[in-house]
Amino acid sequence: MGTYKAFLIFFLNFLHLSIAKNLQENNTLSLSFPLTTTPLSQSSTLKSNYLFSSKAMTNTIPSLNYKSNFKYSMALIVTLPIGTPPQDQQMVLDTGSQLSWIQCNKKLPKKTPPTTFDPSLSSSFSVLPCNHPLCKPRIPDFTLPTSCDQNRLCHYSYFYADGTLAEGNLVREKITFPNSQTTPPLILGCATESRDAEGILGMNLGRYSFVSQAKVQKFSYCVPHKQGNKIMPSGTFYLGQNPNSHRFQYINLLTFPQSQSMPNMDPLAYTLGMVGIKMGGKRLNISEKVFRPDAGGSGQTMIDSGTQYTFLVEEAYSKVRDEVVRLVGPKLKKGYVFGESLDMCFDAINSVQASQAIGDMTLEFENGVEIVINKENVLDDVGGGVHCVGIGRSQSLGIASNIIGNFHQQNLWVEFDLSNKRVGFGKVECK
């Protein structure tokens, strides 16, 4: 496994935003793309994703259906054919962010794949001028810092929590698919200053996420079981109708009035009504209120493809840790914390016994829907012979929300049904 920060991917999306407009549209898009997985570069970690919105696009997009396999390690990396003619671009599939951006930096480290986008080779590429409405400050939902560069073009900046910076221009560009089918020009970031090897495919509920601009009504993925740090098993990704959806159990997304001010909440995330946690068949004594946003937005529970592990607010985390200590306390690795967040860890010699003793873990939601995490998936091999329970304190990230990461979405269909404002789950052996 790469640097210890590699799993903290694009989850600090808790800015002062207004509720996104209803995403229901008559036109639908159904696509799928080739996916691979690679450890993210260090500057891809601990990022605050600035989100923004504008008027919904009105372009008509034909209904398409595509399916693709992908490999899974720590993040899902989708390869999109961007531009005319298309150039393959690697982007992190991230349901926790809105702005999609591609890597236009020609000064990337030599060890990274040669996937930098060259605007001069695309006939459909255009840059937003400074007088574009999205480039004006203090408009609703537009919290991405922008300015006018020396060429009178709209310049944006990503400020990372680790002190680094990625910046570039806001642009319009098409995504060109097989059979000569393309999207309308989409608003993207074109990063010219960044150490990242890949960009971001923003998939949240914001009006300028990829799914909103392309009018995607459904998308789904199946994360396969992780088998150590070197083996990358294959999973499946759909944009559009999933033929397995008749077996899914659905949870309605929680929505909030636009007038409701909740400074600690991300209103553009996929927020679920979680009600409890079971370990080894035992329901922990955690109030349901812990999993719901309070008056300030603290306690929101979201599902995020761009975060590797699961993070819980202190009241929930402490109950989980107390149960782990009760079951396998003497086997815990004393004084050890992985990635500044995971502190329920074991040496390899104790990890199998610990996994058996802890047993299956179940995340409980409204309507009796459950995500059952098999005991084999409760602990993760973090390298160096150490295995950790894949749950950390949200406080260690400086947030006050619960996040269900992709590690605890293994062997599970997860469908984001935007037209019906719900998320579906289906147990399966992903491959």
UniProtKB/TrEMBL annotation:
Classification via Gene3D superfamilies: Acid Proteases (2.40.70.10)
UniProt keywords, alphabetically: Aspartyl protease, Glycoprotein, Hydrolase, Protease, Signal
Name of the protein: Aspartic proteinase PCS1-like
PANTHER family recorded: ASPARTYL PROTEASE FAMILY PROTEIN, OS07G0603500 PROTEIN-RELATED
Highest taxon above the source species: Eukaryota
Annotated family: Belongs to the peptidase A1 family.
Peptidase A1 domain ranges (all copies): 76-426
Leader peptide range in chain numbering: 1-20
